[in-house]
């Protein structure tokens, strides 16, 4: 049986409260340009707002003026969304704690994830948001996923608990060697 091969995230749609709450958070706090809005074509009375998270894809929000923000954490059962993570530059990440605090937004502080750093906080509707900043740049012609896949193989071979900076450095070295046609005999990353 053949797969339905996806080629990336097209968009993510969330159920929001009123229009202004969504604009204030997605554009005002996270800096996502407000692209356009139109009616929700499936539910009369709802509006559909579109935001650009920075990569040309879309985050969209269904809004209704009768819905009020509820900051209670969203459900954490099977099938529920745990959190949304957004990539930020190192320069932005370095200012995130200060900028969230200036807006009165409670956050987790910086969390070390081995291959990235993270900060978590909740949106006005209780959805957990993560700002993530990779600790590496992939070599030309490769993606972050390529480096992480290779780092994972190295981590497993070394019986390490989680991906750490040495695994990333060795993964990048392997990928660069592979790009330049180096054979397996030149691969000393294990």
UniProtKB/TrEMBL annotation:
It comes from the Bacteria. This is VOC family protein. PROSITE patterns: VOC. Pfam families: Glyoxalase (PF00903). The lineage of its organism: Bacteria, Pseudomonadati, Pseudomonadota, Alphaproteobacteria, Rhodobacterales. It comes from Maritimibacter fusiformis. Residues 8-134 form the VOC domain. InterPro entries: Extradiol_RC_dioxygenase (IPR052537), Glyas_Bleomycin-R_OHBP_Dase (IPR029068), Glyas_Fos-R_dOase_dom (IPR004360), VOC_core (IPR037523).
